Amino acid sequence: MNHLEEHKTTDGLRTLSRNGRCLCSPRDPQKEAEEWLSRQKIHSEDRTVVVLGLGAGYHLIALVNKFPKLALKVIDLDDEIFQTTKSWIELLRQTSPQIQCYNHESAASLSCLEYDLVLNFRPAWAGLENQYMVEYFRLTQNSASSLARAAEENRLEVTSQGLKDKISSIDFSLKDLDFVGADGGNEEVKFWRALRELIE
Amino acid sequence: MRILVLSLLRVGDFIMQESIIEDLRTEYPQAELHLLINDVSEKYIRESGKYKNIHILPRAQIQRSLVESDRPKLSAYFSLQKLVKTLNEFHFDQIINFSHTMFSARIMDLLCAGEKSGMRFQESRVVRPDNLWLRFINENFSRNLNSPFQGIDLLRQAHSIPRHTSHKSPLSALAKKGNIQKIAIQVLTSDQKKNWPMKNFAELVALMNLNHPHLEISILGAPNEEEIIRQTFSEKLNCKIQILNWTDLKSFLLHTDLLITGDTSVQHLAAQVGTPLVSLFLGSANPEKTAPMQADAVILQPRTHCAPCLHSKSCFRETQICAEDLAVNCVSSVIDSRILNQELPQIQSHIWQVSTNKNGIIFLKKISKGAEVTNLNRFLEQLTWQIYLDRGHLETAGPFGSASYMFIEEHSRELARPTSLAVIQTGLQNRLFEFQTHELFIDRLETNFRKQMTPFLLNQTEASSSAFKNLLMDEVTNHLFGKPSGKNYFFTLLETLNIEEPPFQQLKKIKECLQESRALIEIELKLIKSILVELNERNFIYVARTRTLFDLSSAAP
After folding, report:
1. ipTM of this complex prediction, to 2 decimal places
2. What percent of chain B has pLDDT over 70?
3. B34 — phi, psi (to 5°)?
């Protein structure tokens, strides 16, 4: 059972800790949020982003202030956090279409067409790093195994088969993706071959 | 009838392609024309308001999904799938690919239509087109740095789109108006390699302020370029900064007397609206391929050996030496000549002037002392390729008579001057001699090829294959080293010898390439002979005319 505890900075800002580990900067969470935001590669064409980790929520406020048109899907694997943070973050209390919250179960229903980018707010992962990393790979399909699994879930048979022998490779790149022996007339193969031309 | 045109390159390319899209509309007035374009061209196309059925490929977003680690990889797959599905629901009768890229060729494989033309795959295999023009685009234009044809002319020929418009010279309109009053400068391009340094532009403006104080100078830029432009063009310089969207830019260019620019989309827009041009072609900008489609447009190109470089590779030099080669005073003297309506000056860089031949095909004329022979050779090469790609040489009579007539018409001004006539005649004789040696070489090469073919086929090992290819390669390279004229006719042969392929396939290709080189050499030989005969006949008629009828009757006893 996780133990959540509320704290206050010297400026009077509320912060959180889980099992004794802070979920945001205990001194200046707003500055931390600004710095985090400056490192993110959000493009003007991005419509929806997934934020992995809610924590004390200061990074969400910074994000909304800088990108008011951006839709956010916030995933926190700790259900208790939502209840706690909601009580002090106005944004989360509103039934705004801009921010949608997901826990471990509801996040599983997210389709990759529903978001453009995944942002990791690592301070909020404290204590649950491994679970968050699994979630991150599931959402980005950033490894051969996660891509193979996502392909299988989406009934892309040739893709998941083509990735089987690449699963152990550490530096997986879509450039390596080829379908040796696959039927050249297969639609899936044609799509991947077209996409590969864009990164050659 | 529904037609889909794929134009998956950049804005500048699309602006150039607009002339053939317009001609396509004129050719099929009842057809419903659809366009598939990249997201980068969307703004321009929407603002132009000329097109109804536009489909956007979110290329940048797809690329980001594929490359950046924090983006979902499968979304790239699904967005492309969604687009293809939408397009296939239109049941197009014809799909034309105007973009010679591998990606567009793969998209052609995914799209369904009664008829498809342009670079394409079919069931994941490259389709080698029967149309020689298309084959030229795929095999020569995309790889070879030299091209006898401008890209749009090639596309037009490859897709057999008749020309309903012509490249008019805006100079005559300008001459009527009087002097140049408004000059615009487009200082930046989308590619760092193609940019002339901003400080050079500032110096140029200062010089123009000094020499032509009456000029109204504007610096053009896009909203994202405003800051850097304002930093460079201080208030000390007498110029206005214009940050414009596409619609405003177009109307601004309509009222501009001269545009100084790099090889960028604004250049092609100016060519379209008829603004006289002086273009600076740096880095990968290749005048032979992307010259503005405007008669009399002037192109300045540095003489550095690495220019034009490859578009896909970044500059390997410590400094941008092509930009250094194009000195401010040289550019200034060319602009002065335009302002004062004088002949173009002699400068250290190359000067090209755009012209069109009788068939409406763009020809780049080199402007410098003694450029007659260069222009002559380039003109002959263009005519030769045209005859070969049209398969004109296979016709019973052949187009040599009409081609030589066209040559004489095009060079009428030079031929009227005895000194130029002599230079052209000598040039033709020299080229005739060189091409006769090329013909002999091809004979020898084909004999050797036949001799070596049997042992090559018997031991189909990798070693024998590469030894065979190296031998051929050495022979061709040595021959061309001594006689470089017409080396473009050996391009596909040299390329084929460089590619690793199964021996039998390679052999077949080498044979085809040898046939191509032979055909091109024979065409040019026939062409030169035909021109020489025509020239002699004309001279004879000229001499005879002075001595016949009146002379004869007056001389009669």
Report:
1. 0.92
2. 93
3. -115, 150
Options 3.30.70.3270, 3.40.50.2300, 3.40.980.10, 3.40.50.150; CATH for A34-140 is: 3.40.50.150
DSSP state of A71: E
Asked whether the predicted pLDDT for residue B379 surpasses 60, the reply is yes
Nearest CB neighbour to B110, from listed A115, A190, A198 = A190
**Percentage above 90 pLDDT, chain A:** 34
- More confident call, B249 vs B467: B249
Q: Count Cβ–Cβ pairs < 8 Å, chain A vs chain B.
A: 99
Number of helical (H) and strand (E) elements in chain A, helices listed first: 9, 7
Positions of CATH 3.40.50.150 in chain A: 34-140
- The residue type of B41 is S
Report how far residue A153's alpha carbon sits from residue A146's, in angstroms, rounded to the nearest whole number: 11
Mean pLDDT along residues B137-145 = 82
Q: pLDDT value at position B542? A: 47
Q: Do the beta carbons of residue B339 and residue B258 sit within 8 Å? A: yes
DSSP-derived 3-state class of residue A112: helix
- Residue B554: the pLDDT is 47
Contacts of B65 in chain A (CB under 8 A): 116
What residues pair up with B54 in beta bridges, in sequence order? B35
- Angle at which helix B372-389 crosses helix B503-547, to 10 degrees, equals 120
Q: Determine the distance in angstroms separating the CA of A7 from the nearest CA of chain B, rounded to an integer.
A: 32
Q: What is the mean pLDDT of residues B508-537?
A: 92
Residue from the list A154, A191, A199 with its beta carbon closest to the beta carbon of B80: A191
Asked if B276 and B337 count as a contact pair (C-beta separation under 8 A), the reply is no
Q: Helices in B95-170 by DSSP H: which ranges?
A: 102-110, 132-136, 151-158
Please say whether the beta carbons of B116 and B94 come within 8 A: yes
Q: Any bridge partners for residue A21, and if so which? A: A18
**Which CA distances in Å does B387 have to B248, B403, B431?**
43, 9, 18
Interchain proximity B70–A120, CB inside 8 Å: yes
Local confidence band at A96 (pLDDT 50, 70, 90 cut-offs): low
CATH number for the domain whose boundaries are B2-158: 3.40.50.2000
Q: Which of B39, B63, B125 sits opposite A198 (nearest CB)?
A: B63
DSSP state of A126: T
| B364 sits in which H/E element | strand B362-366
List pLDDT tens digits, range B294-308. 989 999 999 888 888
